[in-house]
Amino acid sequence: MSLSARSFSATGVASFANALNTAPGSPGDWVGATFIDGPDTDSAFFYRSSRVTFLGQTVIALGSTSSSNQPRHTIRYDFRPVGYSSTQATIGAYSVHMNRLHPQIPEPTPESGPAHRQRRRHRHKRTRQHFPAVPTSLSIRDFNIQTSSQAAYQELVGSQLNNSGRFFDPISTPGSWNNNGAFRIVHTQDPIGAGGMDDRHDQILLSATLIDGVGLTYQGNPSIPYSTTTWNDANHSYRAWGNDGTSFDTTLKVVGNTMVGPAIAQALINCANGAGHLPVVLNLLLPAEIEASTTIDFRRSTSTPSPMQR
Question: Per-residue pLDDT tens for 93-102?
Answer without folding.
Answer: 988 776 554 4
